[in-house]
Amino acid sequence: MRRPHLITTIAATALVALTAAGCTNSEGTSGTAPSAGASSIAVSKNDALAAQLPDKVKSSGRLVVGVNVPYSPNEFKDPSGKIVGFDVDLVNAIAKTLGVTAEYKESDFAKIIPAVQQGTYDMGMSSFTDSKEREQQVDFVTYYSAGVQWAAPAGKSVDPNNACGLRVAVQSDTTEDTDEVPAKSKACTDAGKPAIDKVKFDSQADATNAVVLGKVDAMSADSPVTAYAIKQSGGKLATAGAVFDSAPYGYPVAKGSALGPVLQKAVQSLIDSGAYLEITKSWGVQAGAIPTAVINGAIN
User: Fewer CB in a 10 Å sphere around the end CB: N or C, the chain?
Assistant: First the structure.
């Protein structure tokens, strides 16, 4: 995707369900939202912002949001099948600010931006990294700062900057898949060394599980996801190298859509009121909190 700075605490009780053999369940994640999480944070409707919503959203009273799960702790399902996570709590707060209800539609990650372009979804919410390339397709409203973090089996020494010849797991269509690992692999081959064997998985849960089971040497993912996976692995995984390549997360909306400026103002209002910071703290991801939301804030 997708994905922030290291999680310092995990307020959520969601678990990556690992069996004694180290396998995940079919969903890849399980758990519940924080017991005193963002649902307890007061958010009020902003009538002035609500009046600026596009007619489609205003008349329906719904903000249709495309999402790909699981990607703990940002978006995943609790045991009842409800989609929860940091992203969900923040978008729910945005919807309350705008006086509408967020309606989440599951999708393959790669299909979310095209569906936003076509108007099937009003916006996307799946830890998207705001990039110059993606900004050619859609606009982004930034809401968080994300970095890349590698993990490897505990006790195994892996250097992300010297991983030539290693098998590295990534989730398909993430920035780790399309940009970061390929660039590292090219540096290897340019130096006359073996390429990195990039192993793609449809879900991050499967990528993480491959590392736990020793099917690959390491994984690369957004830093909160990696930190969360390490914490929930029961000591089976450890960080490999430091967080790098920090970049903004953003909500994709149709290019030139009137929804973009309204979302940006709604996010900023939550930042200014302190509700935004409380939501990040409830999930332990406050290290990546931003002071200002912008439209199209890509670094690269």
Answer: C
Instruction: Please state, in angstroms and rounded to a whole number, the distance separating the CA atoms of residues 94 and 84.
Output: 15
pLDDT tens digits for 121-142? 999 999 998 999 999 999 999 9
Asked if the bond preceding 73 is cis, omega within 30° of 0, the reply is yes
> What does the longest C-alpha to C-alpha distance in the chain come to?
61
> What percentage of the chain has pLDDT greater than the value 90?
70
Q: What is the arithmetic mean of pLDDT over 65-81?
A: 91
78/33 Cα distance (integer angstroms): 7
DSSP H or E stretch at residue 211: helix 204-212
DSSP 8-state class, residue 39: G
Residues paired with residue 248 on neighbouring β-strands, in sequence order? 145
CATH class of the structural domain 38-146+246-288: alpha beta
Mean pLDDT score, 65-80: 91
Q: Do domains 38-146+246-288 and 148-244 have the same CATH topology?
A: yes
Positions of E strands within the chain: 62-67, 76-77, 83-84, 101-106, 123-124, 138-153, 167-171, 197-201, 218-222, 237-254
pLDDT band at residue 286, thresholds of 50, 70 and 90? confident
The answer regarding whether domain 148-244 maps to CATH 3.40.190.10 reads yes
**Tokens 């332990």 — which residue?**
284
pLDDT score for 38: 60
